[in-house]
Design goal:
The complex is a heterodimer of chains A (about 325) and B (about 450). Chain A is mainly alpha-helical and about 325 residues long. Chain A is about 60% helix and about 0% strand. Chain A has a two-stranded antiparallel ribbon with strand order 1-2. Chain B has about 450 residues and is of the alpha/beta class. Classes of the chains: A mainly alpha (about 325), B alpha/beta (about 450).
């Protein structure tokens, strides 16, 4: 007889692994990726490819030569960071800026804290915000959809819907005047508007979100409370003064609200551990997003909102414990 | 359908032996009867080398309050009273008996006839359960008579009978309910009388529809007993979870079920109580499921206590060449054993044998803070946090995070995508915390 294994219970394990979770996320990102390829064509494919390859290479190099550990790039997490970083930038971003963004996302955002599971901030957002502050012009030049499918250099660009709103409000116009300059809600739902690669199509993002809910990769708490609090906050402003503040539907469909609520804020590593904590986290993200969009200098606030709430996660985890069986 | 509110997992049920009727395992040549078969103090041996014993003869007696009598499961000659290597690899005292014939003590009624008239009084029932060495057969092996002796000022309202069998693979309780349902129901009535309650609830998971039907068809003859089907969810067989599922009452942290007016017993225990009270038969045998990927003919066997596990494995057709792990109990809470010489004890509900590939744990990866362990913990704890605190020796944090509430069901480790050894760390932490609490009291 061979030697018997003796180990503590349990002796069986669920089929879910880090790999299956991460690749599940990658699969759920496919619809939004397809939409970005459709609208932004070659540029989108190029940006996505450079971001993914850069993230994988930087993670490999850092693990191999700096941390001197066995590289784990096949677990899918660096690939997700790459895709999400690409989703958060315009399709005309120069390749070297994408590489810098990837280096910051993986290097500063993830590996400097010890790698997978230990980073306090969403790595892709760290990369994105770094690029936004370093290269504000390139990061806010949005190639217009469809007509730039086969153009990468010198693409015709236009502002995002949030940009149009902010600019015209600053110029003294009222919301009812501006609405005619914005895409219709139907176009915004499908994704026919200017913006970052992955944020444009609410439909594709919702599809991916439903898939992740079905696979139990995410729970409803963060996306729901994120969007609901943004709707309530912007709804109150809109009801108080519809000439100054646009309706909540616009806020959901415009910019990165859904990309943030479904993919960026739900990042397991950087979000709270209990349902109550997740709700608080989501509400914070929603309120901060609207606060920045409406009263801040930037037209868009999703990235900043999530990063700020990431910083609160340790406190939220302390304050919002699970309901204990038989506890007081 | 009813179930408990918090957490839980649903592992593959794999109850491959559910349709196999209970077979009587032939007597072994030698039995090893451990003196510590119950939760609490071990028993004291009454026999010595060379003594002749009959089946059912008292061979070890309870000396402490939480302890239990042990009776000879076979007839024959005591070879020695000596240490044996128990399933966890520790040396423990046991009585070794060479089997000769099958000569039962004359006071025991070995006929098949069902005796339904309960003639003993409440106190007599409790005393006789103690005499007959009845312990909880669900696995915890708490002396059953102690459960019926309520602390002053406490009153029981419900007797809860656990027919959940939430562990994957195991089918011994299932077969018992199907084949010995009537006797089991009489056992429940006896326990109700002992406990002086009017109501008993039997909880059975919905994956045993035949057992639910069999017992439901009997309830008309047994006033006060209700059968409830429960949604399949592990660990529903935990007594706190079962009470929550059946009555929506929550046993407070650190307290016993009697705090909410309940006493919980397993269906196997109820059957053993029937045999003890009505047939004068001590606890000398039990039903054991033998199953797993390594077993050719998974089945259920009526086994004398003390029978070496090897006898069961050979009967059920195991393959020693490919066997990787032998588990005493189910896959979620059972203990891996280091040798096939270990005996079946009162708490052995199943023997599970996995092939080598299945015996390995998945590779451990970094915690990705996915919070799945938090969402499946049936006690509402944060396993990742307690495990981490224990890992780095911060036992105050483990204690403050209620490590002692953990019932070691293993749902956290089962579900962890990073396959972290959460329960290993939790056990270590609980051990240390318990020690700290004891030291503080002294």
């Amino acid at each position: 007889m061979n030697r018997l294994t003796v180990s503590g219970s349990p002796h069986v394990h669920d089929v879910m692994s880090v790999k299956s979770v991460m690749w599940g996320v990658v699969i759920s990102l496919i619809p939004a990726m397809m939409v970005s390829f459709w609208y932004f064509g070659l540029g989108a494919i190029f940006v996505t490819a450079v971001a993914i390859v850069s993230c994988l290479v930087f993670e490999y190099l850092i693990q191999k030569f700096l941390l001197k550990e066995t590289p784990t790039i096949t677990d899918g997490s660096a690939m997700i960071t790459g895709i999400l970083l690409a989703f958060n930038v315009p399709s005309s971003l120069p390749w070297w800026q994408i590489m810098i963004g990837s280096a910051v996302a993986i290097g500063i955002g993830k590996m400097s804290f010890g790698g997978l599971g230990k980073n306090p901030f969403n790595p892709a957002l760290v990369g994105r915000v770094f690029l936004l502050i370093s290269f504000p012009v390139d990061m806010t030049s949005w190639p217009t959809a469809i007509e730039n499918r086969f153009v990468f250099f010198d693409a015709a660009t236009g502002p995002t819907s949030l940009g149009v709103l902010k600019e015209n409000l600053m110029a003294g116009e009222t919301v009812p005047d501006i609405i005619s300059k914005l895409p219709s809600y139907q176009e915004m739902f499908i994704g026919q508007m200017n913006g970052s690669l992955g944020e444009v199509s609410a439909f594709a993002l919702l599809l991916g979100g439903i898939y992740m809910l079905y696979r139990k990769i995410i729970t409803w708490h963060i996306p729901f409370s994120f969007v609901a609090s943004a709707v309530i906050f912007s709804g109150i402003l809109w009801m108080v003064n519809p000439a100054m503040y646009i309706d909540p539907m616009f806020h959901i469909l415009a910019g990165g609200m859904l990309l943030g609520a479904i993919y960026m804020a739900t990042d397991m590593v950087t979000s709270p551990m209990t349902p109550a904590g997740m709700l608080v986290f989501g509400v914070g993200c929603g309120l901060l997003t609207i606060l920045i969009r409406v009263f801040g200098a930037y037209p868009e606030g999703v990235s900043f909102a999530i990063l700020i709430m990431n910083a609160f996660v340790p406190l939220i985890n302390r304050g919002f414990k699970p309901k204990r069986f038989g506890g007081k | 359908m009813k179930t408990f509110a918090l957490g839980g997992v649903h592992p593959e049920e794999a109850k491959v032996s559910a349709a196999k009727a209970v077979e009587i395992l032939p007597l072994p040549q030698k039995v090893i009867v451990p003196l510590g078969q119950n939760l609490g103090a071990p028993s004291k041996a009454l026999v010595k080398k060379g003594d002749e014993v009959k089946v059912g003869q008292l061979i070890a007696t309870a000396e402490a309050f939480i302890s239990s009598n042990i009776h000879s499961p076979v007839s024959g000659k005591v070879e020695k009273v000596d240490d044996y290597l128990d399933s966890t690899g520790y040396r423990r005292p046991a009585i070794f008996i060479d089997v000769i014939g099958d000569d039962w003590d004359s006071t025991i009624d070995t006929s098949k006839e069902i005796v339904s008239e309960i003639s003993l009084s409440s106190t007599e029932i409790i005393q006789k359960m103690k005499d007959m060495g009845i312990v909880g057969l669900g696995g915890a092996t708490f002396p059953s008579h102690v459960k019926l002796m309520l602390p002053d000022g406490k009153k029981a309202e419900y007797l809860i009978i656990n027919g959940v069998e939430c562990e994957p693979y195991l089918t011994s309780d299932h077969r018992l309910m199907l084949e010995r349902g009537e006797e089991m129901m009489i056992g429940v009535r006896i326990l109700m009388k002992g406990l002086q309650v009017q109501k008993a609830l039997i909880g059975i998971e919905a994956n045993k529809p035949d057992a639910i039907q069999a017992l439901t068809s009997l309830v008309a003859h047994f006033p006060g007993i209700e059968v409830h089907a429960l949604k399949v969810q592990y660990p529903q067989g935990g007594e706190k979870q079962l009470i929550k599922a059946l009555l929506n009452r929550e046993v407070p942290s650190g307290k016993l079920p009697i705090e909410v007016g309940c006493v919980v017993n397993n269906v196997g225990t109820a059957f053993a109580v029937y045999e003890a009270i009505q047939k004068n038969k001590p606890l000398v045998e039990r039903i054991v499921t033998v199953t797993g990927s390594n077993i050719q003919n998974p089945g259920n066997y009526l086994v004398r206590i003390g029978t070496p596990v090897r006898e069961l494995l050979e009967k059920a057709g195991w393959n020693p060449e490919t066997a990787g792990k032998i588990i005493n109990g189910g896959p979620m809470m059972g203990k891996a054993v280091s040798s096939t010489d270990v005996p079946v004890v009162k708490g052995t509900s199943g023997i599970l044998v996995f092939d080598q590939e299945e015996s390995k744990r998945p590779n451990v990866q970094a915690c990705i803070r996915c919070a799945k362990c938090v969402s499946v913990c049936p006690m509402g704890l944060e396993p990742y946090l307690i495990a981490r605190a224990s890992e780095i020796g911060m036992y105050e944090i483990a204690e403050n995070e209620h490590a002692m509430d953990c019932m070691e069901c293993g749902s956290c480790q089962y579900t962890c995508p990073s396959a972290r050894p959460l329960l290993d760390h939790l056990r270590l932490g609980k051990n240390k915390v318990a020690h700290i609490i004891r030291t503080r009291k002294n």
